[in-house]
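Thread title: Can someone regenerate the structure for this chain?

I was given the following input by a collaborator and told the matching structure tokens would be attached. They weren't. Posting the sequence so someone can regenerate them.
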Amino acid sequence: MATNPMQRKARNSFLLGMLVMLLISGAIIALLFMQLMNKNKKEKEDLKASVKAYVLSQDVQSGQVITEDMYTMQTVNKNLVPSNATSDLSLIQNYALQDKEGNSIYTKYDRNNNPSLYIKKDNKEYEVKKEEETENYYIEKNDSKEYLELNTVPLVAKVTMKKNTLITTELLSKGDNLVQDDVRKQEYNMFVLPMDLVTGDYVDIRLMLPSGQDYIVVSKKEVEVPNVGGVDSTDTVWMNLSEDEILHTSCAIVEAYKIKGAKIYLTKYTEAGMQKAATPTYPINESTRNLLQSDPNILEKAMNGIRARYSTTNAADLRNNGINSVISSQGEQAQSNLETNMETSITNSKNSRKEYLDSLSGVTE
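Best answer:
Regenerated them for you:
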């Protein structure tokens, strides 16, 4: 059927319009597809760069015990958070402040925003208090104290923190290892270490003599095992000790070096959260004792404990019948042992320091 020129022109215009519309639609679809691909790519990159971290869900005061209701896990960009916010999530992941029966301890605030700990037992709420003399936690029940055995050592805020603060290991401390003014981080490489010792374990420092006598020098201290080049050190540990604990340990090290066959070593606590600290039994020598009693760096509370310890135990008899007698029996050999072992310890410290610095700079042998 023949068509006139006007019809052909209209048809061609229609076809041309359809073609243009298809081209435009194709371009729009291609553009949307590219945007979708870029969005998916960005989401994958963001997901790859994302890490889990814990943040505070409320303000926390310095010295406040941390409970589970105070924090929450969030997904954050790893480039925007410090490494210590994600490197040891187990510190929080495995943390649940409860009594031995599994009752959770939580935090409540009064009208003045002062926090207190609470626990529900037998469908009744009790305030959890801390006994200053023994540092044990208890509740008041039936007009008497009922002490609580906790399933873990409480975590405590070192500093005041605001809501949404990222939680890092440096911001928290174990409840029985609060930092006092006279506490220093000490490094030792002469202890005999348990084979399975790892960072976070709690230990006693002990001195064993060849006669079989075994003294507790310092009790229940958290250890940190230095990591050199991705491998835990085999002979070095770090621990926070107060001034009097440092002097007790130094005295024990010197005497362990003097006595041939003596051993100064660490023993682990099996359930640190439930076990109380052992009572130190090591009797220091007279010169160290005098130094302790005149040292202005020792806090008054620690000084009172030292005086009580040496006034209630016969330290002179313990030393004369034990440590002093062994040292005397070895005579001049004791001094030779001391000099040799001190030189070995200094050499080990220098070598460990060099290995640590080399691992930081990427230097390998």
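The chain has a mean pLDDT of 77.
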